[in-house]
């Protein structure tokens, strides 16, 4: 996703976003693993907030890269999808798939079920 320069990060905005909804997934349109992760969430009827990083960068040209750098700085991961459940970074597609296979996906989400408003969201920054 890019190189991180410490002075050009907006980690607080990322932390706010990942704590505003129980399941948040950062994506890019051309990402195959993002599509697979979305399929798992849809098959499991998990409602989530999708944050398209390309769209975010386009909609916020002045500080879009600071936000993306904040995400990278927080997770130490430069690929997508990046998935958060209850504000915690769980990883990407592989980790999501593992949670599902182990039957732990819904119990992980249940930790913050009171925040769950049952509406899927594609975020438009």
Automatic annotation (TrEMBL):
<dbReference type="InterPro" id="IPR014025">
    <property type="entry name" value="Glutaredoxin_subgr"/>
</dbReference>
<feature type="domain" description="Glutaredoxin">
    <location>
        <begin position="23"/>
        <end position="90"/>
    </location>
</feature>
<keyword id="KW-0249">Electron transport</keyword>
<keyword id="KW-0813">Transport</keyword>
<comment type="similarity">
    <text>Belongs to the glutaredoxin family.</text>
</comment>
<dbReference type="InterPro" id="IPR036249">
    <property type="entry name" value="Thioredoxin-like_sf"/>
</dbReference>
<protein>
    <recommendedName>
        <fullName>Glutaredoxin domain-containing protein</fullName>
    </recommendedName>
</protein>
<keyword id="KW-0676">Redox-active center</keyword>
<keyword id="KW-1015">Disulfide bond</keyword>
<dbReference type="GO" id="GO:0015035">
    <property type="term" value="F:protein-disulfide reductase activity"/>
</dbReference>
<dbReference type="InterPro" id="IPR002109">
    <property type="entry name" value="Glutaredoxin"/>
</dbReference>
<dbReference type="Pfam" id="PF00462">
    <property type="entry name" value="Glutaredoxin"/>
</dbReference>
<dbReference type="GO" id="GO:0005739">
    <property type="term" value="C:mitochondrion"/>
</dbReference>
């Amino acid at each position: 996703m890019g190189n991180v320069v410490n002075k050009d990060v907006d980690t607080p905005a990322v932390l706010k976003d990942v704590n505003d909804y129980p399941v948040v997934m950062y994506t890019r349109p051309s990402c195959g693993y993002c599509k697979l992760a979305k399929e798992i969430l849809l098959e499991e009827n998990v409602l989530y907030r999708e944050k398209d990083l390309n769209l975010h960068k386009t909609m916020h040209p002045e500080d879009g890269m600071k936000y993306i750098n904040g995400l990278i700085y927080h997770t130490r991961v430069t690929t997508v999808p990046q998935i958060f459940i209850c504000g915690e970074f769980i990883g990407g597609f592989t980790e999501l798939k593992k949670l599902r296979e182990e039957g732990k996906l819904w119990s992980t989400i249940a930790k913050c079920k009171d925040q769950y408003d049952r509406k899927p969201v594609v975020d438009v920054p």
